[in-house]
Design brief:
- The protein has about 325 residues and is α/β, with parallel strands linked by helices.
- The chain has two domains: about 5-120 and about 300-330, Quinone Oxidoreductase, Chain A, domain 1 (Alpha-Beta Complex); about 130-270, 3-Layer(aba) Sandwich (Rossmann fold).
- It contains eight helices and 16 strands.
- α2 packs across α3.
- The radius of gyration is 20 Å and the shape is globular.
- One of its GO terms (molecular function) is mRNA 3'-UTR AU-rich region binding.
- It comes from Friedmanniomyces endolithicus.
- This is Probable quinone oxidoreductase.
- InterPro entries: ADH-like_C, ADH-like_N, ER, GroES-like_sf, NAD(P)-bd_dom_sf, QOR-like, Quin_OxRdtase/zeta-crystal_CS.
Length: about 325
C-alpha cells in the first residue's frame, strides 16, 4: 500500500447552528487506527438526518471540533491492532462510524464489513444506515406480518423508501404519505399501493377508509413533532406507534395515559441499540444485502455532492427537497 498522507479534507463543526457552522477543511490530520480499528479511505459518505441533529445541537456532540458523519464505504488502507474481524488492507468495506465526513476515517472494525461481491459502487453507502434502520424497525420495533396494514410517513424520503420496499417484500398493506405528486408517484413505484398526498388530502380520513375504520397496526413515523398526534389517531387497537426520527423537530413530552384509549404501544427506538453486538450487526447487514440482491431493492440515490458542497446537501435534506439518499464524495 502506498504511503499515506498526513493531511486530509474533511468537514468539522466547532459550535452548533445552521449550515453556516459547517467548516470544510483541507488540512485536517489523517487519523491513526487504534486497537480494534481500521483506517478507511472513504469513497462515498452517506448524509443522514442524524448529522443535522448533531449540527443543530439536538444531539450533543462528544467534543469540538467534531467531524460529522455516520456511514461510508471505502477501502481499508491501514489496520490497527487487536480484533479486526478478518479485515485487512485492501478490503472494500461498508461501515457505520463517527467522523465519516472526511477522506479518511479510523473506524471500529466491529461495525465494518466487507462489501459483498457484485454490489455496485455507492449502493453500500446509500443503503447501510437507512436500510438497516428500516429493516430493524419492521423486524423488532414492530414485527410486521403478511397482510398487516402499516402507515409510513414521508414514504418518499430516504428511510421511507427503504421501509416501503421492505414492507412490500414481506407482504404488508402499505399506506404512505408524501407532500407532492412527484413523491407520491415515487413511493407508489417503490411499492406503496396506497398513497396520501397530505398537501390536500386528509390523512386520518383516508387511513380509516382504507382500513375500514380499524386503523393501522403499525405506524412508522420519522417526521416527529408535526405528525405525532396524527400517527396516534391513525393507529389500530393494540397497535404500535414507532417514532424513530425528528425531521420536523423533537416530539414534545407525551402524557402516557393517551395510550390507553387503544392499548397502544409507543416506541422511540434507535438503530444502534438493535445492532449493538457484532452478531446483531452482521445478521442485519447480511439480511439487508440479501434483500437488495435477491428482491432487487433500489438504493435510490438523489444526488452525490462534493464534500465541499456539504452545506447545500444539508439544506436540501432539511428543506424536504430530496427523495432517496444523499451522498458525499470526499475527494471533491
Amino acid at each position: 500500500m502506498a504511503s499515506l498522507p498526513t493531511k486530509m479534507k474533511g468537514v468539522i463543526i466547532e459550535k452548533t447552528g445552521g449550515t453556516e457552522v459547517l467548516q470544510y477543511k483541507t488540512d485536517l490530520p489523517v487519523p491513526s487506527p487504534g486497537d480494534g480499528q481500521v483506517l478507511v479511505k472513504n469513497d462515498y459518505v452517506g448524509v443522514n438526518f442524524i448529522d443535522t441533529y448533531f449540527r443543530t445541537g439536538l444531539y450533543p456532540a462528544p467534543k469540538y471540533p467534531y467531524i460529522l458523519g455516520r456511514e461510508a464505504e471505502g477501502t481499508v488502507v491501514k489496520a490497527g491492532s487487536g480484533e479486526l474481524y478478518g479485515l485487512k488492507e485492501g478490503d472494500k468495506v461498508l461501515m457505520l462510524s463517527e467522523g465519516t465526513y472526511a477522506e479518511y476515517t479510523a473506524a471500529n472494525a466491529v461495525k465494518a464489513v466487507k462489501v459483498k461481491d457484485g454490489l455496485e459502487a455507492k449502493v453500500g453507502a446509500a443503503a447501510l444506515l437507512q436500510g438497516l434502520t428500516a429493516l430493524t424497525l419492521i423486524r423488532e420495533a414492530h414485527p410486521v406480518k403478511k397482510g398487516d396494514w402499516v402507515l409510513v410517513h414521508a414514504a418518499a424520503g430516504g428511510t421511507g423508501l427503504w421501509l416501503v420496499q421492505l414492507l412490500k417484500a414481506v407482504g404488508a398493506n402499505i399506506i404512505g404519505t408524501a407532500s407532492t405528486q412527484e413523491k407520491v408517484d415515487l413511493a407508489r413505484k417503490a411499492g406503496a399501493e396506497h398513497m396520501i398526498n397530505y398537501s390536500h388530502e386528509d390523512v386520518k380520513s383516508k387511513v380509516m377508509e382504507l382500513t375500514k375504520d380499524a386503523g393501522c397496526i403499525a405506524v412508522f413515523d420519522g417526521v416527529g413533532k408535526t405528525t405525532f398526534d396524527l400517527s396516534l389517531d391513525c393507529l389500530a387497537r393494540k397497535g404500535s406507534m414507532v417514532s424513530f426520527g425528528n425531521a420536523s423537530g423533537a416530539v414534545p413530552p407525551v402524557t402516557i395515559g393517551r395510550l390507553s384509549a387503544k392499548n397502544a404501544r409507543l416506541m422511540r427506538p434507535t438503530l444502534f441499540n438493535y445492532i449493538a453486538t457484532r452478531e446483531e450487526f452482521e445478521h442485519y447487514v447480511d439480511e439487508l444485502m440479501d434483500f437488495i440482491t435477491e428482491d432487487k431493492l433500489d438504493a435510490r440515490i438523489h444526488e452525490t455532492y462534493a464534500l465541499s458542497d456539504v452545506a447545500r446537501a444539508h439544506n436540501d435534506l432539511e428543506g424536504r427537497k430530496t427523495t432517496g439518499k444523499l451522498l458525499l464524495d470526499p475527494s471533491k
